[in-house]
Amino acid sequence: MTATTRAVPVFDGHNDTLLDLTGSGRSFFEQSEAGHIDLPRARAGNLAGGFFAVFVPDPVPEAALDGAAAGGGLASSIAAGTSIYAATATMPAPMALEYAQQQSLATIASLLRLEQAAGGQVRVCRTAAEIEACIESGVFAMELHMEGAEAIDPDLNMLEVLHAAGLRSLGICWSRPNRFGHGVPFAFPSTGDTGPGLSTLGIALVQRCNQLRVMIDLSHLNEAGFWDVAKHSTSPLVATHSNVHAICASARNLSERQLDAIRDSDGLVGLNFHVGFLRPDGGRDADLALDVMVDHMDALLQRLGPTRVALGSDFDGATMPAAIRDAAGLPVLLEAMRARGYSGEIIEKIAWRNWVRVLKQTWGE
Questions:
Q1: Is residue 31 within 8 Å of residue 38, measured between CB atoms?
Q2: What is the pLDDT of residue 19?
Q3: Which of 142, 180, 230, 344 has the fewest CB neighbours in a 10 Å radius?
Q4: Cis ω before 154 (30° cut-off from 0)
């Protein structure tokens, strides 16, 4: 690896680290072999920060996960649960509002406590300028994101409270349905055309997010919902952790028409590192050539242009390529980009500058 690529900071568009920390009991401040992100490994890989997702797991009976998630902590249980969902015709019924709110608030509190315990090493950022300042100063930047709007009530009162607490981006759906819309199942091969679009409440949620300048994340939302957001939102279209359907025909990936809409809105796509969304065969073997990742990146750049492609790893929520493994392995990906012929300027844009650009445009700060 060259000194140049090692020096490039990365701001990442998606992780499930808060969930993994809760499930495993490991410390964010101590290096571990478990999970994908802790502060020492972030420093080793020049990970400068990212979107920290609040995800509420379904109350799946433990017996349903026996064997599949043995010894893997809560995050592994969720990963196993998604495999279970993929093998069934339907996702679980929408969860109770009270349960979703309780779990979400507990996770947000854990993020705020982490910041308090960090001694200035970590900051929960509420503006793009704060993220930029953290990257420049070496403070680890954490952005509060929600993956699924189950905790938001029909009157949207909780959205106001969450925004006041620091929420700046929201995925309307995870892959299960909720009162606002429908997500895509973990299906291969499949398109994202898997169900109806946003509900009336979902459209109201989009409009209020626009007013509050909360970024709407299109990853996990089905195709009909995508087009409803495109119709009703006044902000750039963003998919924080999605890939190219033409290369990997997963329902989670984006069609050329969707990519064109993101381009036309001056939005952004963050490359997802999950092998099942990268491999042309849809498999989950971690022995994946990094050329496949760069193939997706090439396709995104060709369709979107150099200012609309970023990274959205899905660390702590998915199977990483063995060559990367965890946050400490990020320079390996940047080196693969350089080997493909990417200039230092393009690498910096993809690694962090494009996220700052679209967040400034969306948040107005």
A1: yes
A2: 97
A3: 344
A4: no
